[in-house]
Structures are given as C-alpha cells and as structure tokens.
Amino acid sequence: MTSFGERSRAAVARHGRLCVGIDPHEPLLAAWGLTASAAGVRDFGLRTIEAAAGRAGFVKPQVSFFERFGAAGLAALEEVLAAGRAAGLLVIADAKRGDIGSTMDAYAAAWLTPGAPFEADALTVSPYLGVGALSGAFDLAHAHDKGVFVLAATSNPEAAAVQRATTAEGRTVSGEVAADIAARNALVTDEGSWGSIGLVIGATVDWRDAGLAPFSPPAPILAPGFGHQGARPDRLTEVYGRMSSTVIASESRSILSAGPDGIADAIAAAAAAYAHAAEGSPDV
Ligand SMILES: O=C(O)c1cc(=O)[nH]c(=O)n1[C@@H]1O[C@H](COP(=O)(O)O)[C@@H](O)[C@H]1O
C-alpha cells in the first residue's frame, strides 16, 4: 500500500482538489425526496458517492447526520463508507474524535483499522485534549497507510477565542498544533512525499492571523468553508498562499443542494472551479 499522504497527492493530481461533503441535513433530505430516517441518509449517501465517483477524488461523510438515527443510521454509514472506498474515492470520515490517549486509541481502531465496520481512509480528530493524546491514532494510521486530519484552525467564527489564544512563547494554539504535526510528519515521511497527518484549516480563516506558516514536509490541508460558508474557489491561492498546493477543498451544502438530478453536474462544476485555482503554487 501507499501512504495516505501519497494517495492524496495522486488523487489531487488525477481528479483535482475537490472533496464532496456528505452532510444529509434534514431540509436536503426533503428536497431529495427522501425521508429523515436511516434509509434516507443511506440513499442520500450512496447517490452522492455514485455521482462523485470519477468526478472527484475525495468524499467526506459527516458522521453526525448518520449517528442521529442510532444503530440503523450507523449501519447506513458503514454502507456509505464501504461504497466510497469501493468506488475508488478517498473517504474521510468526519467524526472529529478526540479524547485521552487510551480512549482515543479505541476511536482510532474503530475508523482506521482495515476490515473494521467503519473503516475509512482518514479520520478528522480534535487536538484540544493535547496533540500528544492523539499519538496512538497517528501510529495506527501510519501502520495501516491511513490518514488523520487534525483540527488546526477551524472555519467557524467561535473558534478564534480558543485557537488564536497565544502561548507563553507568543505562538497561537493553531500555530503550536501545526508545528507539532509538521515535526511528527517529518519523522516518518520520505523525502519529497506528502505527510499523512493532515491539518484542517478553514477557508474562512486568514492563516497569517491564525499564526500558521507554510510547513514541511507538505501534508494535505482539509479546507472546509468554501461554498455555503462563503469562501470562494477562485480565491484559494489568496487564502492559502504557499500552502495552496496541498489543499483539499471541501464543500457540502453548496453541492448537495443541487438535488439528486443535478448532483453529478454540480460536482463536475465545482471540480472545474478548483482545477486551476492553485496553478503555479509551489510545493512547500
Ligand atoms: O472537519 C471539517 O470537515 C470541518 C472543519 C471546519 O473547520 N469547518 C467545517 O465546516 N467542517 C465540516 O465541513 C462541513 C461543511 O459543510 P458546508 O458548510 O455545507 O460546506 C461540515 O460537515 C462541517 O462539520
């Protein structure tokens, strides 16, 4: 197998940097003619996967919308995750897990173990119990060529109060998280390759204000905030500067609102909008 970082790089080269978010909000289910139920989120997810296959490299099912329907919803999620991987998409489970180390290890096992019911290619995780508490997840991901996306600077406005707070050394919390991840990637990443521990940096955030800086080795940056939250694809290089080349741009509602008949075209159009967005941006 190839590392998640390198599989991400290959997916971006082949399909572009769009990630299709699978967020079956209740009004979207209604607009798609589906019920607010486990069966509804299953159909919504499977149809989105079918439309994304061959048109995008990544999908990101948002776990909450499946969890909402209990065991049946989670069974639907299992099907959606498996269908995405079978379709050749890189599947990022957006569960934002984070806990003390021993508990975090069990979450990592649930999402990143080959053959596990929730097996995904990568998992979103929160570092706010300490980046070190995620070590077991990083090790497991490395052992199985999986990926982890660590929340560094999230797209929501409430995040700034915590994430832009500064340490005694004058660095922002986001900057500390990013520097720690870069150091961890450097230990296990081959020269010239992308690291497999990615960062989440929202497209609504100015990375300079957030105290971030281009890091090395390069690693995938999951970038939500485009589309519904207001960030524009044509401003990608303005937003991410020298980090643009590894950005994976995630959109959910802006694409999903096209409905079941329009979703394939909406994905193709969104992919095209990012096609030239980071041209000329050097690998950092
Ligand atoms: O980790 C995420 O994906 C995430 C991080 C972040 O900083 N902001 C953010 O919006 N997200 C997720 O990205 C998706 C955004 O959805 P849309 O606003 O509809 O494109 C949701 O599933 C959010 O939970």
Please report the number of helical segments.
12
Helix content: 40-55%
Distance between the termini: 25 Å
The secondary structure category is: alpha/beta
Q: Could you please say which CATH topology applies here?
A: TIM Barrel
How would you describe this protein?
Keywords: Decarboxylase, Lyase, Pyrimidine biosynthesis. It holds the Pfam family OMPdecase. It catalyses: orotidine 5'-phosphate + H(+) = UMP + CO2. InterPro entries: Aldolase_TIM, OMPdecase_AS, OMPdecase_type-2, OMPdeCOase_dom, RibuloseP-bd_barrel. It comes from Microbacterium marinilacus. By secondary structure, this protein is α/β, with parallel strands linked by helices. The chain has a single domain, classed as TIM Barrel, CATH 3.20.20.70. The protein is 43% helix and 15% strand. The protein contains twelve helices and eight strands. The chain has helices spanning 4-15, 26-31, 38-52, 64-67, 70-86, 101-112, 135-143, 160-163, 173-188, 236-240, 253-256, 259-275, and strands at residues 18-22, 58-61, 90-97, 122-125, 147-153, 197-201, 221-224, 247-251. An eight-stranded parallel beta barrel has the order 1-2-3-4-5-6-7-8, surrounded by seven helices. Helix 6 (101-112) links the parallel strand 3 and strand 4 (122-125). Helix 6 (101-112) packs parallel to helix 7. It is globular and about 55 Å long. The chain starts with a helix and ends in a 9-residue tail after the last helix. Residues 21, 23, 60, 62, 94, 124, 154-156, 200, 202, 224, 227-229, 250-254 line the site of orotidine-5'-monophosphate (OMP). Orotidine-5'-monophosphate binds at residues 21, 23, 60, 62, 94, 124, 154-156, 200, 202, 224, 227-229, 250-254.
